[in-house]
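Format notes (please read before filing issues)

Several people have asked whether sequences and structure tokens are stored in separate files. They are not. Every record keeps both together, in the order shown below: the sequence lines, then the token lines. Line labels are part of the format and must not be stripped during preprocessing.
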Amino acid sequence: MFLEILKKIYTFLFDTIQTVLLAASVFLVIYLFLLRPFEVSGESMFPTFKNGEFILTNLITLRFNELKRGDVIVFQAPVDHDKDYIKRVIGIPGDSVEVRGGSVYVNAKLLDESSYVSRDVRTSSGAFLREGQAVVVPTDEYIVMGDNRPHSSDSREWGFLRKDELIGKSFFVYWPPNHMRTVENPGTSN
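Then the structure lines:
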């Protein structure tokens, strides 16, 4: 009887360990290759994203699809690789991007940002993207900006974002539950 109890305990422990290892393996594969959670920290994307919201970022999309103007991405901060940033793609390879008179121009046309930047917000220039000076985005690089322009560290200051710094494309806000929603590209003159 004692051996039977030990055998049941052993079987239970073995099955539990096996289940935990399988679940951990599945989680690890998903985390490393498919999806990654990201917590919004700060106000650089307000009002589109609020401080403390959690977003799922698709890691695999970037391997098969090119980014489009208006996509929201997560990437390693160029100024501090230990941090991740979330920003909106403004310029894709080959685009000419310019800040002029408080607005952004892409390929000499005013970029319609009305769906994510309030009309009263003015986009100021920075150390890299200077007032009235267009820059052409090189191959495998991007210009990104936060939706809350006065409170965003972005390409206007530190320049182009390299493709190898990208983590993924954001697609779903999952926390808090009352703010669940998909992350849409507003379709701004792609």
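For reference, the curators noted about this record: The chain has a mean pLDDT of 89. The longest strand covers residues 80-91.
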